[in-house]
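Next comes a single protein record:
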Amino acid sequence: MDAERWRRVEELYHAAQERPTEARREFLAEACANDAALRGELESLLARSESSGTFLERPAVEMAAFGRNEVSTKSRPPWWIYAIALAFLARAVFTTYFCFFGPESMGIDVRTTATYPIVSKVAPGSPAEKAGIRPGDVLVRANDQAIRDVNYWYWFLCNVETGRPFTLEAERGKQHIRAVLLLKRRPVQYWSTGEGMVLLLNLFGQFTALAVACFLAFLRPKHALACTGALFLAVYATAVFHRYDGYDSVWRQWPVWYQGLLWATLVLNSVGLGIWFTFFALFPRPSFHNRWIWAAAWTPMVALAIIFNYQVWHYIYGPENMIPSAWISAILAACWIAYIPGSFAMLAVKYWRLPDETERRRVRLFVAALALVVVLAVPVLVYSQTDYTNSPGAWLFLSVPMRALATLAGVTFPLCFGYAILRHRLFDIRVIIRQGIRYAAAKQLLLLAAPAIIAVFVADLYLHRDRRVDQIVQDRGWMYASLAGLAILAHVRRNHWLESLDRRFFREQYNAQDILHSTLEQVRAATSLGDVAPKVVKQIHAAMHPTFCAILERRPTDATYSVISIFPDRFSPPILRSHNKVVELTKLVAKPVQLSMQDGWLSRELPEQSSGIDLLAPIRRSGLDAFIALGKKRSEEPYTSDDVRLIEDLAIGLALLPSSPPSMDPASEISKECPTCGQCYDVTDEFCRGDASRLATNSFPRCLLGRFRLEFRIGRGGMGLVYEATDLQLQRKVAVKLILEDLIRDAAALDRFRREAHLLANFQHANAVTLFDAGVTPDGRPFLVMERLTGRTLREELNEKTRLPPGEVRSIVGQLCAALSAAHRRSLIHRDLKPENIFLCDDNPHRLVKILDFGLAKLLMETSGAAANTRFSTVGGQIAGTPAYMAPELLLGAKPEQGRDLWALAIITFEMLTGQRSSLARNEELAGDRRDFFNWALAPEPDQRPQSAEAFLQRFEQCYGNE
C-alpha cells in the first residue's frame, strides 16, 4: 500500500470513528462510492477497533490492512474442530456416567501368567471376598467359558454387567471352587471414601484438561501449535491406562451413533504418541519441515493404531481372534522407548538454540509442569498395575493422599500447558513469586494486626482464668492498655499503612502519576519539542524503568526518524523507517501500541536496529511526525493500561509544542542541481527529473559490473527500484532492479543472494521474464539484470478497462498456466503472483504475457535472515506476498506450496472477468458451472483445490472455452 493510499485510509478511518455507529455505513458508502476495496478495508479496520479497542491484536492484521477483508482474523473454526470437540465431550460424559452408574468393582487383582491368571489380591468387603475368592486362586473358567489366556480374562472383566449374576471357577490347590458374584451400582457411600474422592478428582481433572483443550482450539483454530496442543491435552484427559469392571458392557448399551463418537476418541488415543511427538516437534517453534521426516515419524503410529483398535474391537464385541497381549505389550514398549526419549532430546536441542528468552521460559514451564506429573502420577500409575502392587514403595504411592496429590498435579499440568502456549510474553517465575509472596505477606500482616492483638488479649485472659479480674488488672493492666493502644493505632492507621505498602511494592504506578503532573507542567512551559524532550525521557525512565526511552522525529523529506533525545545516552538509538508497517499502523490508530503483547509479530516487523522497542506512541499533529519509543521494562513486567494511558497523555501534550529546531546542515538543501542536465532534482530520489534522464547522483555508480550503464528510473516497487540500462557488451536495453538496502544487509546474506540468483537464472520460459545476471554494487547493494519489456502491467490494464473480454482472459490464463506449470515442475514457487507482477507486452502480435519477479520473494526471504524467525515470512517490514492474493492458511503461517500460486491465479482470473476480487458472496452471482469453478479453485481447504496448473487450465477451458 503506497503512502497516498495510507493517508486516505487514515483520514477516512478517523472520520468514521468520530461518527455514531449507525451513521458510519452511510458515510463509508458516500466516501468510497468508487472504491469498493477501500470501503472493505475501512469496514474491517473499524470492526476490529470496536471488538478489541485496537485492531493490532492478531498476526493476521495484514488481511484487514491490505484489503483481505473476506477472511476474518477471528475466523470461525473449521468443522472438524467442532467434530473432534464433540467426540471428546461425548467421551467425558460417558466416563462420568460410567463412574456414577456403572457396576462396582468385583475387588480382584490378578497376576498374569503364560496360562491362567492368578488372584493376587482381594479387596476386603468386595463381592469377590463375599463369594469366597481368595488370593492364590487360579481362575480357570468364567460363565462356563474357559479362560485360555489373560486376554480372555480382561475381556470377561470389562464385560460384566450390573445386576446380572456371573460365575467364576478357580483351582485352589486340589480344590475346585465355584463362586457366584452379583455386582451392583456404586453406592452413594462410596463417594465419601478415599477411593471415591480420588475418582471425583480424576473427573475434575479430565474436564479441566478438556476445557483448556477447547479453549486453545477455538481461540486459535488456524494455529498449528495451538491445535496440536489442544489435541494433545484432549488425548491426555481421556487416556485410559486401567481396565475397569464392566466398561465395555456399558459402552455397548449406548446408541450406535454415540459409540461412533467414542470410537473417534479411541482412534485418536491410539495415536497419542504421534501427537506427543508432533507437539514436541512444533513447540515452541517447528524443528523441521521435511515431509519425509513426518512420514517416518507417523508411519509406526498408524500401524500401531490399526493393531490397537483391532484388539479393542474384539474386547468390546467378542474375544475371538484377539492378538496375544505379549505382542501388544512389546510393540507399545518399543514405541514408548523410541518416541518419549526422542521427543525430550529434540526439545533439549531446540531449547539450547532458542535465542528468545520468552520461548525458553515457555519450554521451562512446560517441562516443569510435565515433570510434576511424571514424579507424582507415573509412580501411582505403575504401582497400580497388578504386577507391582506388592513392590517396595507401593504402599506410599497407592495411599489415598498420594493418589489425590498426583491427581491435583494432573490438573495443574493443562493449566500450565495452556499458559505456555497462549501467553504472549512470559516473565521470570522468581520475580513473580518473590514479589507476590512479599506483598501478600506484608499486606496480610497489616490486615491481621488488630485481630491478632485482640487474640493475644483473649488468650492471656484464658491462661489466667484461675485468678480474679481485679488481680489480673492490677498485675497486667499496663500490658492490656498497651495492646489496646496498638490495636486502636493499627485500626486507625491501617489505610495509610496499606497505601504506603502499595507505594513500596507498586511505586512505578505511583511515580508515573507524579511524573504525569510534573511533566505536563514542564510541557506547558516549554517553547519547543526539542527543549523539553531530554527532561521527558529522563522522567519516563525514572518512573517506568524501561531499558531506554527516546523521542524520535521525522521531517517530510526524511526516510527515517531521527532521535531528538534518548536516555540512557549510552543506548544505541533505534532506527524507524517511515514506510515500515508498524509505524504506519501505529499512526493510523493514533494510540500507543505495545509490541510484545501482539504475539511477537509486530516486534518482528521492525528492522533489527529497532527490535528493542516495546511501546511505541505517536505524537501527531499537522507538520509534526514524531514518536515516543520505550524499550522493555527492566523488571520484565508488561506495560499496564495505566502506563499506556500516561504515555498517550504525554504524547498529546507534546503534540501541542512546536517542532524541534532544524538539525540539518544549512548547506544541505532539499533539492540540488543535476551535474548532467543542469536541472534540479529531489535529494530523496536517486535520479534527475529533467529531460536528460541521466543518473544525477554519485551515490551509485553509473555502470554496474563495468557492463550495465544505468539510464533512468522506470518503476518503483516494494522490493526495490527498477531502471532502464544499456548492456554495453551486447548493446541491448535491459532492466536493472536495485534491491532495497534494508532487505539484505550482511556479507553472508549477499553471498547467498548471488548463489540463489544464479540458480534462479537457470529457469527460462517464454512467459517468464528472463534473468540475465545479478550482482552487488561496491557499496553493498544487490541488483538483478533482466530483459527490458515494453508494454504495461495487468494492473494498469485493469485500472483502465476494469474487466477484460473472456477470449483475452483465456489467452492470459493459458500463458500464465504454462509458466507456472514449468516452474512448479522445477519446484519453483512465485509466492507473490498478482496483477502488478504480470506484464502484457506490446511488441508482440499475440499479446505475450510475462510473469515478473519469479522467485524473487523467496530469494529475498531466504537470504535476508529476517524471515527465518517469523511466521509470516516477512523481511524488512515487507510481507513475502500480498495478503489480498494469498491463501488464508498462508496468512496464518502455513508452509508455502504450489497451491499458493494457483490460489493467486484464481483471484486474478476472477478479477479479470468481473473487475472485482473474488469472495464467496460474489462467487454466488456467477452461473452454475463458473461458480463451481471458482468455489473449487478457492476452496477453504488446500486439498480441495486444484493440485496443478494443468488441472486449473483444463477446468477453466471447460467453463469459458466457448466464448
Notes: Residues 899 and 942 are 7 Å apart (CA to CA). The chain has a mean pLDDT of 75. The chain has 35 helices and 24 strands. The radius of gyration is 36 Å.
